[in-house]
Amino acid sequence: DHRDLHLSIRRQRQMCIRDRISGTTEAKTWIPIFALRRVSFLLAFSPYLLLYLAVHFGSRSEFINLWMIFPFTVIFIVIPLVDWFIGLDPANPDSDQEDKMKHQLWYTLLPVLVLPVQGFTLFWAAEIYHYAGLGGFGQIAWIVSVGVVGSSVGITSAHELIHRRSRWLQNAGGLILSSMCYGSFKIEHVRSHHQNVATPLDASSARKGISLYRFFPQAVIRNMVCASSIELKRLNKGGFGFWSLRNEFLIWSCVSILIAIMMLWFYGVSGLVFYIAQSFVAIFLLETVNYIEHYGLRRNQRENGTYEPPNPNHSWNYSSFLTNMILFQLQRHSDHHQKASRPYQLIRHLTEAPQLPASYAAMILLAWLPPWWFRIMDKKVKQYAAS
To answer: How far is it, in rounded angstroms, from Cα 78 to Cα 58?
Structure first.
C-alpha cells in the first residue's frame, strides 16, 4: 500500500546517504572514507557555532531570552532527527586507510584546537551572561546551553587527549577539563575507570535499576575521592606528601580556582555564578553519558575475587554518523574500551557489542526520565544477557 511504498523509499534514501557517508563498496568511487572523515570531524566545532548564532539572532530580535535555548534545542532535537534520517554508519577503515589516517597531524590537531576555542568561548559567554541584560529564563537557558556545548565538545576532546601518550596532549586535556571544574576526571578515568569498568569498583559504571539521579552524586563524589587517592598513593611511592606540587589533583583544582577568580575579577559575582553553574551542567551531562555507556553491564567475577578482563561486551555501542563526528566517535565506545590508546579516527564499529536503541542525545533525554529509561533499557540489558 501507500504506507509500505513510502517506507521503502525512505529506507532506500537512508541507505544511499549512509553508503556515501560510510564509504562502503558502492560509494568508494564517490569519495574515500578517510578523506570524507577528515573533513567531517570539523563538525565537532559546530556546537560552538550554535552559541554564536544564538547571540547573533537573539540580539536582533525581541526574543533574545528564547534564543538562548537554541543550542540546546539543536543538539537534543535536530541532531538526533538528522541521525535517524541518515541511518547507521557501521563502516570501518581498512588497513590501507588506517595507515593513512593514523599518522596525519590533522586528526591530532582538531581536539587540541578545542582548548583555545573552549577558553575563549567560556569568557565570551560569561560576558554575554553579565552584559546582555538577560531575564531569568534567558540566564538559565544560556548557562545550560554553554554547559551542554562545553561538555559535548570540550570534555569529549579532553577525553581523547588524556588517552594520548604525549604528556603535552594529556595536559591539554586536563586544562579543558579544568575549565569545567572536573580536572579529577583526567586522573580517575585513565587510571581507574578503564581498569575497573563494569564492576562495583568503578565510579562510572551504573548498575541495573539505579536511576541517573541516584547515580550522579555518587559518581561525582567517588570520582574526586578516587582521583585524590590515586595521586596520594603515587606520591607516597616517591616519598612525597599530598600537598606536594607534584600532585596532579591539586594542580587541576588550582587551575579551576584560578579561572573562578578571573571570572570574579572581570564580571563580579555574576561571572562566578555563571562559571560554577555551567560547570555543573557540563559535569552532569558527562556523568549522564557515563551512565548510558555502561548501564547494567557487568564483568563476571572469578572464584578468587578478581574480574574477567574487560571486553566489548561491557560497553554500549552506537554508530550514527553525525553524532559520532561531533563527539570524535565516542559512541563507538566498545572498541574504545577494547583498546583505549586507539585514536578516535580509527575507532571501529563492533557489531558484536551491545547496541543502544538510539544516539547519545536521544538516550540522554531518556535517562532524564527514569520510568521510561527503565522500561526500555532494563529490557535491553535482559535481552543482551540472555543472548
So the answer is: 19
Can you tell me the distance from the alpha carbon of 207 to that of 196, in angstroms, rounded to the nearest whole number? 13
pLDDT in tens, 299-355: 999 988 899 998 899 999 999 999 999 999 999 999 999 999 999 999 999 989 999
Asked whether the whole model's pTM tops 0.85, one would answer yes
Question: Rounded CA gap, 132 and 121, in Å?
Answer: 15
**C-alpha to C-alpha distance for 73 and 224, rounded to whole angstroms:** 31
Q: Read off the C-alpha cell for 13.
A: 534514501
Asked if 19 contacts 26 with a C-beta cutoff of 8 angstroms, the reply is yes
Which one, of 38, 36, 41, lies nearest residue 19 by Cα? 36
320: phi then psi, degrees, rounded to nearest 5: -85, 140
Dihedral sign (CA 119, 123, 129, 132): negative
- Of the candidates 319, 352, 316, 357, the one whose C-alpha atom is nearest the C-alpha of residue 90 is 319
**For the chain, where are the alpha helices, taking DSSP H only?**
2-22, 33-40, 46-58, 64-67, 70-73, 79-86, 95-102, 105-131, 136-149, 156-161, 167-178, 184-188, 194-196, 212-237, 248-294, 321-326, 333-338, 360-367, 370-373, 379-386
Provide the strand spans (E) within the chain.
Answer: none
